[in-house]
Structures are given as C-alpha cells and as structure tokens.
Amino acid sequence: MVTENTPQSILDINGLTVFFENALALNEVSLYAKKGEIVGIFGSNSAGKTTLSNCISGLILEMKKKEARRGGQNITISGQICFNGEDIVYASCSYRVKNGLGLTRERHPIFRDSNVLENLKIAGNVRNKKEIAASIEKTMDFFPHLRGLSHEKAGFLSGGEQQMLAIAMALMVNPRFLVLDEPLLGLSPAVQADLVRTIRDIRDEGITVLVTEQFARPLLPLIDRGYIIENGIVILSGTGEELMHNPEVRSGYFSI
Known about the structure:
By secondary structure, the chain is of the alpha/beta class. The chain has helices spanning 49-57, 59-69, 93-98, 116-123, 129-142, 159-171, 189-204, 240-244, 247-253; strands spanning 9-20, 23-34, 38-42, 75-83, 86-87, 101-104, 177-181, 208-213, 225-230, 233-239. It has a domain at 36-49 and 91-253: P-loop containing nucleotide triphosphate hydrolases (Rossmann fold, 3-Layer(aba) Sandwich), CATH 3.40.50.300. Helices cover 35% and strands 27% of the residues. The strands form 2 sheets. A 6-stranded mixed β-sheet has the order 6-7-8-3-9-10, sandwiched between helices. The longest helix has 16 residues, at 189-204. Mean pLDDT is 90; it is low at 1-5.
C-alpha cells in the first residue's frame, strides 16, 4: 500500500522494508503523519509495530550493528523515512533525537535503581542544566502524579507509574515528534484512560504523536488517522471514526 505524501507532513515513510535474515518483518510499508496529528498503528502481536517504531527512532540501526559484531542474523533495511523532508533511514539515533524525534519503547524501560528525578536528568543529558530543569517542570505538568514520587526508586513504582516515567523521559529531549510503542500494554483501564488524556495533552502542546497498540479501543476516539498492520504489511488505513465503524476492524482488532 502506497500513501500519498502531503506538504504538511512531518513524517513520510515510503516502501520501508526490513528483513531479519530471511524473515520479512516489514513489507513495503508506506504511511505519513501530518504536524499536530495523533496517528495510530494497530495490529496483533508480532505484526511489525515495534520494528516500525525502531526504524523511525533509529534503534534498528543499533540492532543491526550489534548483530553484525556478534555474527548474528543479518538485518536488511530499505526504503525511505523522511522527517521534515530529510531522509533519515540511515541516520543515527542521536541525530534523530537532536532533530526532535523521541521514542518511548514498549514495556517502559527505565533505570530501576535510580529515582524518578535521576531518571529524568539522565534522559535529558543532551541538554544543559538550565534546559533540563525547565524540561523537568514542564514534564511534571503532564504527569503531576510523579511530583510526589521524585525521590522514589523507579523500580518500586507501579506499572502505570513506570509508563508515565518512561514517557516523561522521552519528553525530556523536547521532541517535536513522539513515538509511543504500546504505551497501554498491561495497564488497568483507569490508568489507560489517564494516559490517553495525557497523550491528548502532549499533542495539544504541539507535539505530533505516533502511537502503536494491539488493543486499540481506548485510542480510537483520540487519533486523527490510523493504520492496520499485519504480517509487516499495511492492510488498511482511515480516520479513527472510519476504523471504528468498519465491521471487520471492530471484530478483528478492537474486541468490539
């Protein structure tokens, strides 16, 4: 499926294909996100959502180098990932971060032995002290619950609190575009609802958001557009409302 590029888009992916050795992980994936949108990527487990997130963030290149050093599986990447008009498919993670692209990986990786405040400072290490302090204050506005946990070790936080911290850490680099890989995974409905509201608040601050999820029902009212991905292929796209009212999508992907 090929999507049409738009002048307002901040992200354009065209023909993105990824092989892990001889296994096809992404197959000619094309999609776009316009500035100020929330875009959803939905699909079952192992559909290719995390591989897509890793490609956008650049983590796939670090995986490729690691595998090459240890003589592991060969990872092949082709296609285009254009961010603000520049093809970054082979750009480093650090370059992407400096240019405004942030990622929160699935299962909220954090520094468990450090406290909340230390985690935020570590995440903002590419910035100066004044900028880090300002970012911490702004980030705490998104997650006021974390203010009272500043000196708690991250490993002692609940799953929902750890996810809040993981997203807060991604916000510390002041991204213009934020990728959230399965942020609702394993969380209670109440915590999911809180995070959905926070994602909306992040978008309202001018940050474009791309969010992947297996269970998409909580996100449907929030997204501007969504894509269904299965076996590494984009099989359907539409607005949140269009996807919600598609009978096959409702039964197959949203547990409705």
